Structures are given as C-alpha cells and as structure tokens.
Amino acid sequence: QHSVTDDGSLASYDSVEAILEKHLGANSEGLKEVKRVLYGWNRGNEVSAMKLPTKATSMAKEGKFQIEGYEFKAATEEMRAPRLVTIGAIQNAIVANTSAPFLEQRQAIYDRVTQLIEAAGEAGVDVLGLQEAWTMPFAFATREKRWLEFAEEAADGPSFHLLSPLARKFNMVIVSPILERDDAHGETIWNTAVIIDNAGRYLGKHRKNHIPRVGDFNEATYYLEGDTGHPVFDTVYGKIGVNICYGRHHPLNWMGFGLNGAEIVFNPSATVGQLSEPMWSIEARNAAIANTYFAVAINRVGTETFPNPFTSGDGKPAHKDFGHFYGSSYVAAPDASRSPGLSRFRDGVLVTKVDLNLVRQVKDSWMFRATARYDMYADLLAKYVKPGFKPQVVSSSKMQVKPVKADEDTADE
Predict the structure, then answer these.
(1) How high is the pLDDT of residue 396?
(2) Is 245 a known active-site residue?
(3) Residue range 360-375: average pLDDT?
(4) Percent of the chain scored above 90 by pLDDT?
(5) Is 413 tagged catalytic?
(6) Catalytic residue among 73, 205, 208, 239
C-alpha cells in the first residue's frame, strides 16, 4: 500500500524530491548521484535553481502557493547569440465546491489562476502553460452533460477575454486549455488548447488527438478525437506545440510536433495517482529526448468530489471522485535533464529559464533526426493501416510446442 495522506502528500512529504533530500541529505554526494541518474545533468551539473524576483516570491507567500525557479543552460556559440526564454507552468486545484453554482465555481478558478499568472508575470515568464480544462472541475467521469455549460468559443469566450489583457500586460504567450464549443459546426464539443500571443491576440488552437477510455476517464461521452493534426505555433519566443493529456502515452503524437519543428511542447494534463503516477516522471522526459525539444508536463492538484456518485465499468463501487490529482509539474530538456517537480498537492508556479540553442546543439550531438529511418517507418505504417496487414514475423516451420511434464504429486493424483 502506498502512503498517500488525505491531503495528497507522500507520507507527509511535499514531493519525491523532498523525500530524497530528507533521507539522503540535501547536499550529500548520494543525493547528487541519485539526481544525476534520475534527473540527468545539464552541461555537466544538476539543473540549477534560479533566484526569483522578491515581488514574485512575496506574492506566492501571501497567496499560499509554491513558486520555484530553475535554469537550463546551453553551450556558448560563436555565431549565434543565446536564445533565452522563460517558460512558466501553473498547476492548481479548483476552489469552490462542485455543488456550487457554475458561475461561482468558474469565477473562483478565474480569481485564483489570475493570482498565479500575475506571479508568473512578475517572475519574467515569456511563455506560460495552464493545465488541462483549467476553467472547470474535471467532471468528465460523471457522464453528466450539464458540465458542458463550461464549454466556450475558443477565440471569443470568457477565458480568452480574461487572459488576453494578462498576455498583453506581461508580454507573455499563454497556452489556455479549455472545453471548446464549436458554434460554426453544430456547437460540437472539443478538448482544446487556445494559444494567445504576447500581444493578447488569438493565434490559434489545437484539439486533443487522443481520448482516454480507461478507468474513470471515459471522456468520449463529451468529445471525440481532435481534427487539427500537430500544429506548431511560431511565436516571438520560439515554436511551441501542445500535446494534450492522454496524448503523452502515444510516442508518435509527441513525434508529430517535433517533425513540425516544435522547440517547446506543453503537456497540459489531469491525471490521478493510482492510474498514472509511475509513468508521469518518465513520459515527458522521454519525449524531450527522443524529439529533441523542451517538454513541459503540467498536472492539476487536489481531489475533486462531485455531488452524485458514478461508476466507470471497471467493477469498482460507485464513487464521487477520480482520486487525487498529483501535480508534480516539471520541465524536461532535450539533453535528458529535467527540473525537480512542483508539489504533489499545492498550487504552484514553475518558472524555468532555457536557452533554445540547446535544441540544435543536442540535434548535432546525438543526430537522432539524421539517423532516424522515417521512410522505413512510413512504409510499415502505410501497410499497417490497410486491411489484410500481415505482421513481419519470422518463425521456424518445424517449431513445436514442448510438452509440459506433470510433476510427481500431480501425476499421483
């Protein structure tokens, strides 16, 4: 049994990192080596902590949320200046009870997230990512259609009008994952990430490519697979993509954004401990390595309890919550290094300064693109998607199954 307490902590610790520091010593050689293996090294050292402006840290203290800063470095080049970009990631719990009026629930979230964005702005964030469906409780296990009232137009909805002035104020690009209602196409519902540029303008959107049907996460009751492909948004701060939640389990989905030139890929998520936590620290880091870009893994926090019990066809008794959303948001770099994660249960802002020159430097070093066999992969996939596909399996024509001998006790019986 795992020791997750009612508040979402791990055996009363804030995070895995806090447990390691407690038992190995914050400055010990043992901890340094564990982090080297688990989190990688950036330019021969741990990813370094970054001092944040006093105003930002004071806002965090007053608002009772976590704010942490880290820095990924690249080699100095002779013919290119550094391409310094500060990435922000926000994780948060809902604020009002899920039985409260919807407008009250949404406004409470707006107020809290605005507070977190203001701190990110004061910390100098250039590109900011919010969590999946940040404007509402993650109600998609309940199968109650009333939650669709939270859906909105991507380019002209209330969340856009909230965030647009903040993007302008802080000269910040914002990735805003929402529940979209597509008025132009029969008011269809999508799980969508809206991109707002640093002038507060609507730049575009991406719809979630992969929809889960596992455990409580039967989201196809509300929306189906997206139709926008793998768009990359060319912003003043670099080329960004958005791999929404369940897409992180699909390596080819990560690859699609890389093939289109992404330098930073956000993964806004809503996932719970019993379902996916062992995967969490691995998947975005693997994607950053395999596709040679920065990956930003963002997960909400808290346990959201709904008014009515629901079942999910998995044999469990009816229940009113998914489980605990475990936060732990982090940034992974193409050189296999990653930042420590945010808290498992507290609202937080992760601020990460990166040099995008590292992307090309790692491409030149490891040559993953040069050594890939895209023609061979394309040929296999083209065959696989057609009826009549036969797997390329080579077996012996004389292969026989070895008979199983009954043990003596069984024979006697």
Answers:
(1) 83
(2) yes
(3) 97
(4) 85
(5) no
(6) 208
**pTM summary value:** 0.94
55 catalytic? Reply is: no
pLDDT for position 384: 98
- Which candidate in 245, 277, 304, 353 is catalytic? 245
Annotated active-site residue in 132, 180, 277, 304 = 132
- Contact present, 1 and 10 (Cβ < 8 Å): no
pLDDT per residue over 196-242, tens digit each?
999 999 999 999 999 998 888 889 999 999 999 999 999 999 999 99
Tell which phi-psi region holds residue 115, choosing left (phi > 0), alpha (psi between -120 and 50) or beta.
alpha
Contacts of residue 70, defined as CB under 8 A and 6 or more positions apart, other chains included, come to 47, 48, 49, 50, 331, 339, 340, 350, 351, 352, 353
Angle (CA) 310 314 320, round 5°: 25
Question: What are the phi and psi torsion angles at 408 (to 5°)?
Answer: -60, -40
The pLDDT of residue 132: 98
Indicate whether 20 pLDDT > 50. Answer: yes
Mean pLDDT over residues 392-400, rounded?
Answer: 83
Tell me how far CA of residue 101 lies from CA of 96, 108, 149, 328, in angstroms: 9, 11, 11, 30
In the numeric block, which tokens belong to residue 188? 């269809």
* pLDDT per residue as tens digits for the range 87-102: 999 999 999 999 999 9
Predicted confidence at residue 408, as pLDDT, reads 55
